[in-house]
Write a structure and sequence with these properties.
Elements: H1 6-14, H2 20-36, H3 58-125, E1 156-158, H4 162-166, E2 194-197, E3 206-209, H5 210-222, H6 229-238, H7 250-258, H8 266-277, H9 280-283, E4 297-302, H10 303-314, H11 339-342, H12 347-363, E5 373-380, E6 399-402, E7 415-420, H13 435-442, H14 449-452, E8 460-465, E9 471-474, E10 481-485, E11 501-506, H15 519-533, E12 543-546, H16 557-571, E13 575-578, H17 583-598, H18 603-619, H19 627-640
Parallel strand pairs: 1-4, 6-13, 7-11, 7-12, 12-13
Antiparallel strand pairs: 2-3, 4-5, 5-8, 8-11, 9-10
Helix pairs in contact: 5-6, 5-8, 7-12, 8-10, 15-16
InterPro entries: PARG_cat_C, PARG_helical, Poly_GlycHdrlase
Active site: 418, 436-437
GO molecular function: poly(ADP-ribose) glycohydrolase activity
Length: 642
């Protein structure tokens, strides 16, 4: 190329095909390239041609773009179709799962409903199986308690010689000092007991020893073989002259006259009671402390000492105990002298006197007089001793429910609940004749507790261990009748006490039924019951109770039953519940107890249910809400939410 001139170079540029060698070479290169790249073959005269160097025209680029767009559209369409298929499959699976779940839930709902209806139907028709037979409950004889030697302490006054007793000697009264003091029983034979006596119209009134006056009259009666009711009345009025014209003895007089001759031993019994009363100074030598409110304390007496004290009560010898007004010395104590029993004749008093006279007939006979001990314990709980009911995790304990039998008979050996008045004994020396009064009449030794037990406060109770049952009875209230003597064959414990425990707890006396449906009243009753039920865990007998605080006190039997169940659960003691012929209450209590037990309801949960119930009662002040039905409905709602 260096030897060529410029004109040749220009020609080559303008006419490249004129160079045969170059043209031949380029054609060969094009053929080689065409053989290697099949995509560059020309299939039509209008299509793009492949020339040397691989360059393309506008048509080719457009076709390439179209191919690319088609591929992209196809890929997008395929992806969209796959996505739609996947979404359809997921929707179908979800729909199938939903249908299966709904079918399963419908089936479970039907089964749950059928099960609930079957259970509720069974609860309504079948007796609850959770209650236990009475034989499963513990009595004192089965507790296996071993007492320590009897001894006195600051909180336990013992009126017999404990040293002699612990060495196996006969019961000997404990020597001690006479105490004419506000903290002790003021005895008729006390050296500090004086009374005003006017020997005649013209002679001045003098202060004389009360016991001298009393013993003179009693000796006069005791010296006779037979004494009339009028003689008894005359003797009593001699040392109670200020009550002349106020006291009457028509009930005592009418009683002696109306009893058939073959049963009428009273005229020969009166002298024996007088002789027993005269033994007071030799039988009770130590001052008897008062069981005062706010203090836990106990007194143990022999049954002979008790009979001697009651003989003095029969002859109304106890000073300062004939009135109970708000300003009197013993206004917080029950009455003890029997004059209220001797006046205002009624059939009730006739039957009461039959029971009382039978007791004295037994204790004045040397062959039948009792020889054991009885303990009276006042228990007082402080606020720190009381349970926090909203957080009690205990579940309900054993329950036996019956509409037959009685606490004092079928409940023998258990802790027997006395539906007490706050003033112990209630109307036993008046016209009262319901559960407590009947209990005191068939166990007259209980009456002596009125001598030294002050009115019970909200967290206090009285427990009597060892009293003897002397009589049986029939009826209740106006239908009550003394039915004859009872031979008490209970075993005695190491202290010579009969294995009988009686618990006196007083319920609130509601003037109106609706007053009890508030939690302050419910909590008060829980605390009162717990005060009596608590003991040494696992070492105490189970409890015999019933419609505590119902009847004249207007308590709701269903509410009182659950309150006692809760207190027993907290004290970990079983319960025998006597409905006294109330079949409806029996079946209702069995069913609700079965429900509470099977649902695992705790004391805490039951307390909260009672809160809701009281609120519902106030919301329906006109119509009364049934407690057991309220609880059933609440449990059903809880089940349906599971």
């Amino acid at each position: 190329m260096a030897g060529r001139n410029d004109s040749s170079q220009i020609r080559d540029l303008l006419y490249p095909d004129l160079d045969p060698e170059r043209s031949h070479k380029e054609r060969r290169d094009n053929r080689d390239h065409s053989g290697k790249d099949s995509s560059c073959s020309s299939s039509s005269s209008s299509g793009p041609s492949c020339t040397g160097g691989g360059s393309s025209g506008p048509g080719w680029e457009r076709e390439q773009r179209e191919h690319k767009e088609q591929r992209e559209h196809k890929e997008q369409r395929e992806q969209r179709e796959q996505r739609e298929q996947r979404e359809d499959r997921e929707r179908r699976e979800q729909r199938e799962h939903k249908e299966q779940r709904e079918q399963r839930e419908d089936r479970e709902d039907r089964e749950h409903k059928e099960d609930r209806e079957h259970r509720e139907d069974r609860e309504q028709r079948e007796p609850a199986s959770s209650c236990c037979p009475r034989s499963d409950l513990k009595t004192l004889s089965r507790c296996g308690i071993r007492l320590k030697e009897l001894n006195f302490s600051r909180m336990h006054a013992v009126l017999i010689d404990v040293s002699a007793f612990n060495h196996g000697a006969l019961l000997v009264p404990q020597a001690g000092r006479d105490m004419w003091h506000r903290d002790f029983v003021k005895m008729p034979c006390s050296q500090g007991s004086f009374m005003a006596f006017k020997p005649g119209l013209l002679r001045p009134t003098a202060q004389v020893c009360r016991w001298d006056m009393i013993s003179k009259q009693l000796k006069g009666l005791a010296s006779k073989k037979e004494v009339s009711a009028d003689d008894v009345a005359e003797a009593i009025m001699k040392y109670n002259p200020k009550y002349k014209g106020h006291w009457t003895f028509d009930a005592l007089s009418s009683f002696v006259k109306c009893i058939p001759k073959e049963e009428n031993y009273f005229c020969t019994l009166f002298p024996k009671i007088a002789a027993l009363a005269l033994k007071l100074p030799e039988q009770v030598k130590k001052a008897i402390p008062l069981l005062k409110r706010g203090h836990t304390a106990a007194i143990t007496l022999s049954q002979v000492q008790i009979s001697c004290l009651l003989a003095n009560a029969f002859f109304s010898t106890f000073p300062h105990r004939n009135t109970s007004g708000p300003n009197t010395e013993y206004h917080g104590y029950p009455t003890i002298n029997f004059t209220s029993l001797f006046g205002k004749w009624s059939e009730r008093k006739k039957e009461k006197l039959r029971a009382i006279m039978h007791y004295f007939n037994v204790v004045t006979d040397e062959n039948t007089k009792p020889i054991g001990l009885v303990t009276f314990e006042r228990r007082c709980l402080k606020d720190t001793d009381l349970p926090k009911w909203k957080s009690c995790k205990e579940k309900l304990t054993k329950l036996h429910v019956t509409s037959h039998g009685s606490i004092e008979t079928e409940g023998t050996g258990m802790l027997q609940v006395d539906f007490a008045s706050s003033r112990i004994g209630g109307g036993v020396l008046g016209s009262g004749l319901v559960q407590e009064e009947i209990l005191f009449l068939i166990n007259p030794e209980l009456i002596v507790s009125r001598l030294f037990t002050e009115k019970l406060e909200n967290t206090e109770c009285l427990i009597i261990t060892g009293s003897q049952q002397f009589s049986v009875y029939s009826g209740f209230g106006d239908s009550f009748e003394w039915a004859g003597p009872h031979q008490d064959r209970l075993d005695r414990d190491e202290w010579g006490r009969l294995k009988r425990q009686i618990l006196a707890i007083d319920a609130i006396n509601f003037k109106h039924v609706q007053e009890q449906y508030n939690m302050s009243s419910v909590t008060r009753e829980l605390n009162k019951a717990y005060c009596g039920f608590m003991g040494q865990e696992g070492k105490d007998p189970d409890i015999a109770t019933g419609k505590w605080g119902c009847g004249v006190f207007n308590g709701d039997p269903q509410l009182k039953a659950l309150i006692q169940l809760m207190a027993a659960a907290r004290a970990r003691r079983g319960l025998a519940f006597f409905t006294f012929g109330d079949e409806k209450l029996k079946h209702g209590l069995e069913q609700i107890y079965h429900l509470l037990v099977t649902e695992g309801i705790t004391v805490e949960k039951l307390y909260r249910l009672l809160e809701d119930f009281c609120a519902a009662q106030h919301a329906h002040a006109v119509s009364r809400v049934d407690l057991f039905e309220f609880i059933r409905n609440d449990v059903r709602r809880s089940r349906s939410q599971l």
